[in-house]
Amino acid sequence: MELFTNQVLAGIATGAIYACMALAVVMIYQAIDHLNFAQGEMAMFSTFISWQLMQWGVPYWAAFVITLAFSFVAGIAIERILFKPLAKAPVLTNVAGFIALYAIINSTAGLLWDFTIKQYPTPFGSAPFLGSQLISTHQAGMIGVTVLLLLGLYFFFQYTRIGLAMRAAASVPESARLVGINTSWMIALGWGMATAIGSIAGMLIAPVVFLEPNMMGGVLIYGFAAAVLGGLTSPFGAVVGGFLVGVFENLAGTYIPGVGNELKLPIALALIISVLVVKPAGLFGRHIVKRV
Amino acid sequence: MTTLLNVKDLRAYYGQVQALHGLSFSLNEGSLTTLLGANGAGKTTTLRAICNMVRSTGAIEFDGKPLSNRSTENIVRFGIAHVPQGRGTFTTMTVEENLQLGAITRKDSAGIVSDIERMYAHFPVLKQRHTQQAGTLSGGEQQMLAVARALMLRPRLMLLDEPSFGLAPLVVRDLFGILGKINREDKVSILVVEQNAQLALELADQAYVIETGRIVMSGNAKDIANNEEIRKSYLGY
């Protein structure tokens, strides 16, 4: 029983990271109707920035905040430079753009910081949380930061005018422009926020997976699985999907014989395919009906 | 009377297809003008061209200032509210959020709050449903919401694209009554595009008839309504 509780709690902790990645993916998907394959690399690069800052002697939380700001601006810049010109381009052109971005960021990080694994600090420590062996303080911290982030985002989208404008621009762009919303900048803002959210995920998971240019590969696949499970059109679904995938991954690894650590990733891929076959809109997504 | 909107030699294109062929008309401050014509005549395109939602050439002046080459969202800031065909409801948001979106370019939060109350007075049904998702409203209610959303801008000019479309005759009467009232009491100039010519001519003071992208007839709404020949050849009733 203790093993079960332990695995569920650990699953919630990594699920929090998947939830952040899924949320970042969904935010960009809502804005431009494409999956951002480079979301993980962007998060990885941000994490390297924070690591570099700490190497230069900047304290953890200051580096955290500076990295958030850097990621926000970088996300906007990527949208303005690369994806705004591609807005009316066919799907494949956009996919090529994402793959290019993936490759560029990955190689640049490798060039700047090489491909060796680096230790990444945690501000929460890794002692047992509240004296319990079930969960470490870092895992509790991952959950805590994610919950705070999600609450903040909820209030932003629900109760601020700019949040309202962003939702309007994502749901009915033409009507949004007709009430005077600059939908193009709302998309850029969405990119900035998604990149910042991704950087939080990167900085929180780095102490667990260690810092290196390919650290987010697996995490992003879980993030995609979470987004698909919750529904690509639903930010709320993405978050629920993240936690579900985290718990599911851990329980499958523990209890299904032969799965273990090595086969966890194929499980995420199998989950993506099953959801797409059985319920393509996901748990909370809407069916997209298009008039032709 | 001063001219509020002046459109000169407007030509619009969908890809290679030309939809408007040098269309000119004007609208006086405070007037309620209607653009009539059959399906495909270019009525919707005219409205979309005014808001720069379709590629066009020609001169469009609003209150003496040129609108050409401005983005749609900038044109809104001149006080031009466009209720598009199909109403453009933000279906996943609540009725009240739809109204707030109508005023998203305004900075006076107290004014916005009182205007929302004013809209609820104009359209009591919206007050009953203010927390409901707008997509769950009936067609008539969504049209009311679209008009209310446009009014939240405190527009000087309101462009309405087929407000009667898909609505029951009684609901249409109701809606047109409200439009007339808004025009008279709130001094909002209105340009309404309609297929229901009879009703539109009752409501409007000025009328233009479009055929295949050109103005073929213009004048006082009453005169056009009383001219049997025009009615039979262009308006089909």
TrEMBL record, chain A:
GO cellular component, one term: plasma membrane
Primary location recorded for the protein, binned into one broad class: membrane
GO biological process: amino acid transport
Positions of transmembrane segments: 12-32, 60-83, 95-115, 135-157, 185-209, 265-285
Compartments it resides in: Cell membrane
Domain of life: Bacteria
Membrane topology: Multi-pass membrane protein
Single GO molecular function: transmembrane transporter activity
Keywords: Amino-acid transport, Cell membrane, Membrane, Transmembrane, Transmembrane helix, Transport
Presence of the UniProt keyword Cell membrane in the record: yes
Record Pfam families: BPD_transp_2
Family recorded in the similarity comment: Belongs to the binding-protein-dependent transport system permease family. LivHM subfamily.
Identification of the protein by name: Amino acid/amide ABC transporter membrane protein 1 (HAAT family)
Species this protein is from: Bradyrhizobium huanghuaihaiense
TrEMBL record, chain B:
Biological process per Gene Ontology, one example term: L-amino acid transport
Annotated ranges, domain ABC transporter: 5-237
Keywords attached to this entry: Amino-acid transport, ATP-binding, Nucleotide-binding, Transport
Keyword Phosphoprotein: no
Xref: CDD domains: ABC_TM1139_LivF_branched
SUPFAM superfamilies: P-loop containing nucleoside triphosphate hydrolases
GO molecular function, one term: branched-chain amino acid transmembrane transporter activity
Transmembrane segments: none
Domain of life: Bacteria
The family this protein is said to belong to: Belongs to the ABC transporter superfamily.
Function of the protein: Involved in beta-(1-->2)glucan export. Transmembrane domains (TMD) form a pore in the inner membrane and the ATP-binding domain (NBD) is responsible for energy generation.
Listed name of the protein: Amino acid/amide ABC transporter ATP-binding protein 2 (HAAT family)
